[in-house]
From TrEMBL:
It comes from the Bacteria. Belongs to the universal stress protein A family. It comes from Bradyrhizobium manausense. The lineage of its organism: Bacteria, Pseudomonadati, Pseudomonadota, Alphaproteobacteria, Hyphomicrobiales. This is UspA domain-containing protein. InterPro entries: Universal_stress_UspA (IPR006015), UspA (IPR006016).
Amino acid sequence: MVWLDGGASDEIRLAAVADIARQLETRAVIGLYLNVLPLPGPIEGEATTAIVEHARETGDAMEDALAKRLRMLDGAVEIRRFDVLSDDVARIAAREARSSDTFVALRPNGAMDPEQLVEGVLFGSGRNVYLVPETERPKIAFDRIVVAWNGSREAARALAEAMPFLHKAEKVWIIVATDEKPTEEDAVMGIDAVNHLRHHGIEASLHRITCRSSEVGPQLMAEAERRKANLIVMGGYSHKRLFERLLGGVTYSLMHESPIPLLMAH
């Protein structure tokens, strides 16, 4: 599934999803278009009705244009369009993503792909989010993959969701970050992930990095760059803070700054 909004950035997402579909031999691509309706005014009446009706008509034209663009891709395609209020965008996107294998969007920088949307799908869909940098033609490949591993449930979910991609890889690295005084558990962490992948016919090597918790994000990106990786796989971690964004520090860092595509699951 790919997020579409009718803007110029659709071409970046569609270029990425076309490459993903070709390499994974995907049977179908679903475009999700959420037509945001204006909030009703304080006084209901003909004026408000006319504004909403105009928004729906604009959505009809956009849906037709997006369906035409989707049909330019190879294979079966489908457009899903919903008229929604802005507060419902994340919820509807998460609901629709549950019936897909992967949700493709841009990194949530600026106004292209709202942070609320990406967080909603990541934490609410149960499926993986594939985030693409905002480059004109992103390089989509799966031959060199870095997996961030800390033994958590989120890391296990990401590893499971990434299996179709990992089976295409020529090189896979399990990266474990520890502080300067690792515990006994830290000393063996990652061996289980390597063995798990081996059971699936995927050869992976284990590498440890030593850094402070605040440096994990930048260090992971540096490791990916050093190894010329073209995909980072990691769990999406949340900090449950009342009325605040449910996003952990490492998740936030990579989601906004990763120079290569990022596959995340929660």
